[in-house]
Design brief:
By secondary structure, the protein is of the alpha/beta class. Helices cover 26% and strands 23% of the residues. It has 10 helices and 18 strands. It has helices at 37-51, 64-74, 92-95, 114-117, 125-136, 164-167, 178-189, 235-246, 292-302, 314-317, and strands at 18-24, 56-61, 80-84, 98-101, 105-108, 140-141, 153-154, 159-163, 193-197, 214-218, 221-226, 251-256, 262-263, 266-267, 276-277, 281-286, 307-312, 328-331. It has a 4-stranded mixed beta sheet with strand order 3-2-1-18. The chain has a 3-stranded mixed beta sheet with strand order 4-5-6, with no helix packed on it. Strands 7-8-9 form a 3-stranded mixed beta sheet. A hairpin with a 3-residue loop joins strand 4 and strand 5. The longest helix is centred in the N-terminal third of the chain and has 15 residues, at 37-51. The chain is globular. It starts with 17 loop residues before the first strand and ends in a 6-residue tail after the last strand.
């Protein structure tokens, strides 16, 4: 099904009221091996219980046995709903539905190709995303091109931030020009203005997802990651992105990147920008760093009516992602007047 240009759907801002948040319970041993998975499960339990204070939390589990185990770990499952939809991994932001609103709520389901066909074993999660979409019972619109939710961020008023490194990468939609991709985002997500940043952070295997770089925290304000150390691998790329944002009409709040976190064979994409805005809380990744309190203070000012929950995410970022990567918001249904 395609959307005629005059339907007028738009992707809401993340801070607009949710009906629910979607997540998939972690279990892939390649992403989170033994010794890490136990910590990630505790992070998930904390996230779910915090979000459930203000909205329903929909959790994907493989089967009845997993549902029972997760229930025992949560303890309190009030406002938590389990869905027995099998998934390979946790990256709901990228393979799950992207919701749009007009006088109702509808679903856009884009193709997920595991970030440019990097991981063949994760390709089935494209089908998991469609199963989620079908289970909700809303109209589903399929653009027929590759796009991940982590590659875009919006203020809900038609403005999108993204990166050339990701959306223009030939491992996504090599047949499309920059202008054609903008047309798809206009027609399906209601974006009338696209801010193109350059590259993402070091260690990010998604080819530069914007949710590790810059995020809207209000209709007119963007929080942008910067690196103060000129010897760091992120310095040049983040400086270019910051300069591009300073030339827009928006207020830009620079936030220093957290300390570098490495595994034996790789750098991890730790970033404060990978927060998630729920109805009652804002979940913020922290890393036992001197800048943790700075990002919390910025978000407290931006969202005075929400509880800011800082969560140590060193274990979660081991899997190359963060809080925003594993969540997807479902906006509240709009009642036709």
């Amino acid at each position: 099904m395609t959307i005629p240009f005059n339907l007028g759907y738009r992707m809401p801002a993340e801070w607009e009221k949710h009906e629910a948040t979607w997540l998939s319970w972690p279990k892939d041993p390649d992403t989170f091996p033994k010794g890490i998975i136990e910590q990630v499960e505790q992070i998930y339990a904390t996230m779910i219980l915090a979000l459930a204070q203000g909205e329903r939390v929909n959790v994907l589990v493989d089967d009845k046995r997993m549902e029972k185990r997760v229930s025992s770990l949560l303890g309190n499952t009030t406002n938590v709903k389990f869905h027995r939809i099998k998934s390979v991994d946790v990256w709901m932001r990228d393979y799950g539905p992207i919701f749009v609103t007009n006088k109702d709520v509808a679903i856009t389901k884009w193709i997920f190709n595991a970030w440019g066909n990097k991981y063949d074993d994760l390709l089935p999660d494209n089908d998991a995303g469609m199963q989620i979409a079908k289970s909700i019972g809303m109209n589903i619109f399929e653009p027929g091109i590759v796009l991940e939710g982590g590659s875009i961020d919006t203020n809900g008023q038609g403005v999108c931030i993204t990166t050339e490194q990701c959306l223009l990468n030939k491992n996504r939609n090599p047949q499309l020009s920059k202008e054609q991709i903008e047309c798809y985002m206009r027609d399906y997500l209601g974006f009338t203005d696209v801010i193109w940043l350059k590259e993402g952070v070091a260690g990010d295997d998604t080819d530069g997802h914007v949710d590790d770089i810059a995020r809207f925290i209000s209709e007119d304000t963007i929080m942008c990651m910067v690196e103060e150390n000129p010897e760091d691998g992120n310095y040049d790329a983040l400086k270019k992105n910051f300069e591009l944002l300073k030339n827009t009409k928006f207020n830009i709040i620079p936030i220093q990147m957290p300390r570098r976190i490495d595994c034996p064979d790789r750098r991890l994409p730790a970033s404060y920008a990978n927060f998630y805005i729920g109805n009652a809380v804002v979940l913020v990744p922290i890393f036992n760093d001197k800048n943790d309190n700075k990002v919390i203070a910025v978000l407290e000012k931006a969202f005075p009516d929400k509880k800011i929950v800082g969560m140590n995410c060193e274990a979660l970022v081991y899997g190359f992602g963060g809080i925003h990567c594993v969540t997807q918001q479902q906006p509240s249904r709009v009642v036709k007047k």
